[in-house]
């Protein structure tokens, strides 16, 4: 049976290949029509089906290559959005759709970078001038899924940390102005909330050291009259401050005085 089917269908295959040798779209379509006469389940069907796929691929490439070439030419001229529109005419599932989609992704990314870079540059300029709120607001104009979104979000996180650090330092300084041991301790605790990755952390650490020494001075002034109170005040000095070791030595001295 297979031999008979092969003998019956071979002429379709031969004529189709002869038609396809023309190489243009009408010739290839004629070849497809001819070989399509070989029905499913026939001995030469798998061979015919493979030829149909091959010729269909060639037809689609012939039809779509000019569109892709035009899109590339427009992109070279700098009009990326127009290039994307042209390449988008190649439907999904077509032979060149993979190439078209890859170009569309590249051009979309480049276009978004060109469109959004001025926002990010302006935001960074504002941040360098100390206007962090305006910098954040400007960078937030870059929307999710845009090419520069992750980069802008990293800057925004950094500026928010800096802004938080500035706010904490201002709050701490206001508390420290009263000059009492409890308020100086409160100032230290507020300043210690400045994030470790903030540019203001060094300022916070310096102020913590400064206020810790002020607390120690208050304790030392209290010691001749009320050693117990002096010890309590000195004990509030945080372990991470530069005044801590000196405070502990003073506390030991005052305790010895109390035990005499």
Describe this structure in words.
This protein has 260 residues and is an all-alpha fold. 75% of the residues lie in helices and 0% in strands. The protein is built from 11 helices and no strands. It has helices at residues 2-20, 25-35, 45-76, 80-87, 97-128, 132-139, 149-176, 181-191, 201-222, 227-235, 244-259. The model has no long low-confidence stretch (mean pLDDT 94).
Whole-number tally of structural domains: 2
- Based on secondary structure, the structural category is mainly alpha
The biggest beta sheet is recorded as: none
Rounded to the nearest angstrom, the distance between the terminal CA atoms is: 120 Å
What is the percent of helical residues?
over 70%
CA-atom Rg in angstroms = 39 Å
Low-confidence stretches: none
Can you give the mean pLDDT? Answer: 94
Q: How many DSSP E strands?
A: 0
Which of globular, elongated, flat, extended, rod-shaped describes the shape? rod-shaped
Strand content: under 5%
Q: What are the secondary-structure elements, in order, as H or E?
A: HHHHHHHHHHH
Number of helices: 11
